[in-house]
Amino acid sequence: MTTTNKFKETDIGNIPVEWEDIGLDELIKLRSGKTRPKDLLDHRGVDKKHPVYGGNGIIGYSSETNVDHETVVIGRVGEYCGAVYHLPEKAWITDNAMYIKEFLTDKVTPEFLGLALDVLNLNQFSNKSGQPLINQSIVYSKSVPLPPLPEQKAIAHKLTVIRNAIEQTQAVIEATEALKKSMMKHLFTYGPVPTHQTDQVKL
């Protein structure tokens, strides 16, 4: 990792002087998604396994795809426009989002760029006259820091570990909350749950 006492100011704050600060118009080409697929389901099925992304993440699953490469999805309209999702698999992108159709350089990895865009917080630049909107011109006008590829991979790995830990913790919280609600309902309708049953519950 870079170790330096010298920094320069960028759109996301100070970065090491050794890193590039490069405009997104030099890094990527964007494309808007299409209308929702006709066979959209709210859960993943055997024949409908591809995620469908809207302006605020996955909205369902389909047998169809309109993107077949690793990319980054950006929410285009709505309150959460500018939300960023790294996409490692085939998917369908709706017209409430846009995605990176092409990387113009091999100096950046999709995963790192997704994290950099997340830190950039594109939502703050949205057009808020009416329905909030992020368009391609707004994205192209911004820049992101670009460390060497080995550092990009190291940064992405560390942040992915943290993100996975957060998701696992959130899953435990949600499971605990569901257990609490179930026990409350039982207690208020059937009386106390037998001790041997609660002792067997493991989170």
SSE map:
Layout: E1 7-10, E2 13-16, E3 20-23, E4 28-32, E5 50-54, E6 57-62, E7 71-75, E8 84-87, E9 92-93, E10 97-103, H1 110-120, H2 136-140, E11 143-146, H3 149-190, H4 195-199
Parallel strand pairs: 5-9
Antiparallel strand pairs: 1-2, 3-11, 4-10, 5-6, 7-8, 7-10
Pfam family, one: Methylase_S
Domain Type I restriction modification DNA specificity: 16-169
Protein name: Restriction endonuclease subunit S
Describe the overall structure.
This protein is an alpha+beta fold and 203 residues long. It folds into two domains: 7-147, DNA methylase specificity domains (Adenine-n6-DNA-methyltransferase TaqI, Chain A, domain 2, Alpha-Beta Complex); 157-199, no CATH class. 31% of the residues lie in helices and 25% in strands. It is built from four helices and eleven strands; from the N terminus they run E-E-E-E-E-E-E-E-E-E-H-H-E-H-H. The chain has helices at residues 110-120, 136-140, 149-190, 195-199; strands at residues 7-10, 13-16, 20-23, 28-32, 50-54, 57-62, 71-75, 84-87, 92-93, 97-103, 143-146. It has a four-stranded antiparallel sheet with strand order 4-10-7-8, with helices on one face. Strands 6-5-9 form a three-stranded mixed sheet, with no helix packed on it. Strands 1-2 form a two-stranded antiparallel sheet. It is globular. The model has no long low-confidence stretch (mean pLDDT 88). GO terms for molecular function: endonuclease activity; hydrolase activity. It is an enzyme of class 3 (hydrolase). Residues 16-169 form the Type I restriction modification DNA specificity domain. Pfam families: Methylase_S. Belongs to the type-I restriction system S methylase family.
